[in-house]
Design a protein that fits this description.
It contains five helices and seven strands; from the N terminus they run ααβαβββαβαββ. The chain has about 210 residues and is α/β, with parallel strands linked by helices. It has a seven-stranded mixed β-sheet with strand order 3-2-1-4-5-7-6. The structure holds S-adenosylmethionine.
Length: about 210
């Protein structure tokens, strides 16, 4: 018999699976990912973002512990794995060890021990597009566990000195597919590649919202 928590997890999963359109944040910033570059969709769920990114010409690697919702996604690398178990995915023996990507996309998933590895998995010029729930969300809807909710400025802190921040948001989003408190970032791995005298990285085109 299922306990209350697993029933509630099932409900949350099916609520997310019913959303088939990609997040507007992914739509908006996907054009910054280097053309035809390989993209990792971490905790991909039903694969809505992989479908979108594949449609833009990116070879996709899709990882989730439950890949049953990925039906209909052809020509993608599907990895069924628990991201929170040992060996950690990017460490020796892990399913993503040594891999780098032109894009890393994470939507509505947080496991803090992975965050630094995700930044390190960006190839030069690679783009991190991350969006998930943040503190304050517990007043509205799941997730409520603080381990699954970003702290104020947390993604900014993560990339500080490592990636160029192109866009960042944090706040209540009533219009989102699942309304709640969200934090979003788009950041590019091109610090230090500048040919300018002042070392500033190249500017990317502002993406229309
Ligand atoms: C809220 S869904 C988001 C799915 C997708 N990113 C989207 O936005 O449609 C969270 C996903 O994280 C996956 N997940 C949760 N814990 C995981 C773990 N320990 N290892 C791998 N995947 C996990 C779930 O299976 C689920 O597909």
């Amino acid at each position: 018999m299922k306990n209350q928590n697993s029933t509630s997890d099932d409900k949350t999963r099916s609520r997310h699976r019913r959303i088939t359109e990609p997040s507007p944040w992914i739509r908006r910033f996907a054009p910054l990912i280097p053309e035809n570059g390989a993209v990792l969709d971490l905790a991909a769920g039903g694969g809505r973002h992989s479908r979108h990114l594949q449609g833009l010409g990116h070879p996709m690697t899709v990882i989730d512990r439950d890949v049953s919702g990925l039906i209909g996604l052809d020509d993608v690398e599907i990895i069924e794995a628990d991201l929170e178990s040992e060996p950690a995915p990017f460490t020796v023996g892990g399913v993503l060890h040594g891999r780098t990507f032109a894009g890393v996309c994470v939507i509505n998933y947080l496991y803090r021990p992975l965050l630094r590895d995700l930044v390190a998995a960006l190839a030069p010029g690679g783009v991190l597009i991350y969006e998930t729930f943040a503190r304050g969300n517990e007043a509205f809807i799941r997730p409520r566990n603080p381990d699954h909710l970003l702290k104020s400025g947390e993604l900014l802190e993560l990339v500080r000195g490592r990636l160029q921040v192109v866009a960042y948001e944090h706040g209540r989003d009533e219009a989102a597919e699942i309304p709640g408190v969200k934090q979003r970032i788009c950041a590019v791995n091109d610090l230090g590649t500048s040919e300018r005298d002042d070392g500033e990285p190249v500017a990317h085109p502002i993406q229309p919202s």
